[in-house]
Amino acid sequence: MNLFTRPMKLLTAVVLEQTSEAVVKALLELGVLDFVHINKLDPQQMEKLSSRPSSINRANLEEMRKRVEALLRQGHLDIPTSEVLDVKKLEKPQLEEYKRILDVLTSDLLSLKDKQKESNQQLMGLEEMRRYITEGKGEYLDLRVGEITHGKSEDLGGKLAVYGGLLDRVPESAKFICLTLRRDVSQVDPLLEKFGWVESSDVDLQKKAISLIKERLDAEHQRALKSRTEVEQAVDAVVKQQQSQLFTIWSNLRLNELCDQIRSYFAYTRNTTLFSGWVPSDQADRVRDAIIQASEGQSVIEWTNATEVPRQDVPVAVASPKALKPFQNIVNNYSTPEYGTVNPTIFVMIAYLSMFGLMFADVGQGLVLLLVGLLGSHAYKKNPLKPDGMLSRNVTSLLVYLGLSSMVFGALFGSYFGLPLLPALWFNYEAAVAGHAEGALIHDVYGILGLTIKFGIIIIYTGLVLNWINLIRKRSYLTLLLDKNGLVGGLLFGIGLYMGFGFVGSGYRQFPQTSWVGPVVTVCLILLFARGFLSYYLSVRKGGAKHEPGKLILDVVMEWLVDVLEIFTGYMSNTLSFMRVAGLGIAHASLMESFKMLSSLVDGFGGIAIFILGNVLVIVLEGLSAGIQSLRLNYYEFFSRYFTGKGIAYKPVGLNSNTSEKR
Q: What 3-state DSSP class applies to 15?
């Protein structure tokens, strides 16, 4: 894992036009080049170049590919993945032939889909009637007993089946029982009238009609289930018969989509093709060799180091182990780090898990989170195309880490489903909350609050140090020295901590009487004030705009006041914000103590049920709250100290590209 974003190089290559298709295939197979549009090149170069309209319409390719995917889904077949793509099998897409094949398959499925629709509608009606009978909700049913005076009973029964209704002959009688849903009365009444339905006046028969037809209802339900299964199997068989051909069509469409996407970045002269793009430095040799081989050595390749290009124009590639993907996603959801800066993933992982563990420390409850995460991850791994549910892929992976963190801190605090089954390795959290943790380093709520404040100070200073490293790498030495998040800001924060801890240590009676504090704070404030003038001077030297003295002084004063306010209030609020870690941890321990007390008041199974229910509620509610608060503290207290989020993501075009870029 790289501690910083991956070093990048800008490739500019020229190949002969007759080899450009081979180069496209080679670059697609490598999948490491983040192309730059030709309109971003130097205007003088652009005058000599031209783009060419594509010979195929990428929108048509994508539309037809999605049609193939829809047919595969109808047959309950998995959509192909990038693993089936082979650039060597790329062919010119025969769209008309593909359309003919898909039309034929769609036509074959159409009659089966109509049967499937009818079967589903009938089955839903039968299931609904069975449920109403079982639940005793006769008011939702329309049950009739009568005779048919016109037409055949088979015809009437078939028409009623469309609505999920039933028509059954009464044994040894000319009468029939008609059962439908009451909401379908407006359609059923005209139908019965057409067949000359005459209601029976036999009260006894009407009373036992429901029991007479229930057996028929169960039989029809089983028949409808079997019918639907047979239709689904027929649909699956038709699609599966064409699976190989559909996969071939899908692969060729997808390959042509990606190749056309690459071509859209190309520029042309009469005989040559030019393209440009960003590559991670460690992949530069592979890309060069692939271009030389594909172009048969007839190519010109130039490399530009990222240091020669404005930082904001360089795409950012972050190399993190696959195991850390949940935390990489946390970073990505916030923003993309600036090129050349610290890769925050590992620091986010440590901070996030520490915060969560302090708020949700319990070995047993952590084990539940771990098992849920492992089972969920296994289910998604077993079915890669399964859509994300309430617990997405990323959440299930994150739960594994959160469960382990909770178990570690639970062992430190001696909590096992809220019970002190084993001695605490550090201190008993629940005893500290209750105020009777005798002999422990932390023995009451104030000790817990102090612990989380110190933890917050470590997090904030870690953010400041990371910011200083980033500024050194960017050679922003003025900002490093005189910014609110620079060395002066860090020094003032340290002085504030010194004064605060001294005040608490004196029993909240007086601040430390130290002679050096006043002069150091004064010098720091003067340096902060001078920063505005120094920044303006350096800007003018580089050709920046000049301002009137009055406007310059006003801008500097306003910026200085904001910075001072941020240092003296922002740092304090950021530090005290970490008390929410203690607050949620105390709430977690208090809730478990409450549920233990409630369960002790009820004997037998009732007490056990209360204890189990309490743990479930705590896992769901407290676990969610701890996860959200850990995320908030990372984003607003940690990231705000060093993370600029000004980068642009590295998006190479390759076989694993998720979507085709629209032109």
A: strand
- Chain centroid offset of residue 284 CA: 31
CB of 33 within 8 A of CB of 659? no
Side by side, the strands of the sheet bearing 176-181 are: 166-169, 176-181, 141-148, 197-199
Residues pairing with 272 in the sheet:
16
Q: d(Cα 234, Cα 240) in Å, to the nearest integer? A: 10
Angstrom distance (rounded) from CA 146 to CA 222: 26
Rounded Cα distance, 609 and 614, in Å: 8
Beta strands in 157-230 (DSSP E): 166-169, 176-181, 197-199
Q: Specify the 3-state DSSP secondary structure of 86.
A: coil
Q: Which contiguous run of DSSP H or E holds residue 278?
A: strand 272-280
Is residue 246 within 8 Å of residue 64, measured between CB atoms?
no
Q: What is the DSSP letter of 197?
A: E
Q: How far apart are CA 56 and CA 89, in angstroms?
A: 18
How is residue 314 written in tokens? 């360089």
Instruction: Find the mean pLDDT for residues 299-313.
Output: 90
Name which of 483, 496, 485 is nearest 559 in CA terms: 483
The per-residue DSSP string of 92-142 comes to ---HHHHHHHHHHHHHHHHHHHHHHHHHHHHHHHHHHHHHHHHTT-GGGEE
Q: Which two tokens stand for residue 134?
A: 């079982």
Q: Nearest 5°: CA angle at 205, between 202 and 208?
A: 150
What are the pLDDT digits (tens) for 50-90? 556 566 788 889 999 999 998 998 888 888 888 888 888 88
pTM of the shown model: 0.79
Contact partners, residue 649, CB within 8 Å, separation at least 6: 315, 316, 332, 336
Classify 444 as helix, strand or coil.
coil
